[in-house]
Amino acid sequence: MQPFIYARPATLAEAVAILQEHGPDARVLAGGTDLIIRLRDRSVRPTVVVDVKRIAELDPAIVEVDGHLRIGATTVMTDIVADERARRHFPALVEAAAVVGSVQIRNRATLAGNLCNASPAADTAPALLVYGADVLAAGPSGTRRIPLTEFFVRSGQTTLARGELVTAIELPLPDRPTGSAHVRRTRRRGHDLASVTLAVAIDDTGRTRLAYGSVGPRPVLVVDDSGVLANRQAADADRTAVLERLLVDASPSPRSMRAGPEYRLAMLRVLAVRAVRTALDRLAGEPES
Amino acid sequence: MTTVPIELTVNGRSRRLDVAPNVTLLDVLRDDLGLTGTKECCLVGECGACTVSLDGRIVDSCLVLAVEADGAAVTTIEGLAVDGRMSPLQAAFLDEGAVQCGYCIPGQLMAAHDLLERVPHPTVEQVQEGLAGNLCRCGCYGQITEAVLATAEGHDR
Description:
The complex is a heterodimer of chains A (about 290) and B (about 160). With about 290 residues, chain A is an alpha+beta fold. In chain A, about 30% of the residues lie in helices and about 25% in strands. In chain A, the strands form four sheets. In chain A, strands 4-5-10-6-7 form a five-stranded antiparallel beta sheet. In chain A, strands 11-12-13-14 form a four-stranded antiparallel beta sheet, sandwiched between helices. In chain A, a hairpin with a 6-residue loop joins strand 13 and strand 14 (about 220-225). The longest helix of chain A has 24 residues, at about 260-285. The termini of chain A are far apart. By secondary structure, chain B is of the alpha+beta class. A five-stranded mixed beta sheet of chain B has the order 2-1-5-3-4, sandwiched between helices. In chain B, helix 2 packs across helix 5 (about 140-155). The longest helix of chain B is centred in the last third of the chain and has 14 residues, at about 105-120. The interface of A and B includes residues 3, 8, 101 and 102 of A.
């Protein structure tokens, strides 16, 4: 691993100042499950590594604030999976957090880190997108709220500006009965990156929010307001037509090793249908079909 | 390179060290503290050979900088034995023939120990999920699973 300076700021202001000073030569270290691999293979070569885990303002506790569930920037996947409010209101997020890596990885990997890496295959991104999550960021000119739909640019790049770091992710608590689910396709069970990762949330008005990742440069959110997808009585041809319209932006890379584009596009449709079915079962409070 | 002073507890014993920022907890355990039971293998967090417990949670020590462990309590495979005798889990691995080449076993034991602390009576699926981060190139998964289940049953006796 190449040499670097290790900074362990105690306050947010201190962290922002370091990130502002060093810009692209600084890297934020939270769980380290991606960064340390990249430091070792030298695909990133920062002069400063900024460990954010001891910043006083970044409490890893999950709290309810103003109708939102706030997940701190240092909260790890294991704690999200165990959180009762997350399990009750955001089951797709819990399902996604539960399949990130292994126990060892989930004990270390943070939700904020999963987003900031901006991997198209980030499992938690589709779930957060269907729940309308925002990213809270602190920077040299104060704090701001970034809708997750405006956070990802492409693989490895976000809309965070120089000197900014994520302080929390907030999910609005649902104001209507909602059924939701996360599903994904991997090469093998256990510990693998997703070839397709997808989440669906359907509310009692029939509004369907669907988000998918690993089939393009960034995760995509699409919405069906027609109610057709959520209507079990609708003709198959009609539901297929709506789904095709929603999935039109999927453009998997032909260069990825995990799966070919044809397979990903075929599985995207299969997973979307399954996730819609599970979300509808959960909305109706029925055993899952 | 400038070193950073750290203090951590390893297997109950307090340790003070000066470490370079770019060395991992795995490096320090093996090279500075001589605790070579923890193995280096894939170095990308996939194989689990370097699994240790950090403040009560298992982690891949190849993905933790030594400086991040400042102030932490670490348990390695050397800390699993009770009063110099193998733990029931370690004995079960031998009884079930779960150890072939042995390289992955310290990590398997740390992960299995952690699983049984959280889930004293796991199902086969829970064992497989709990050990999904630990690869065995000898393919002893069946025997390893049996050893974990046997240990869980033994808790009742």
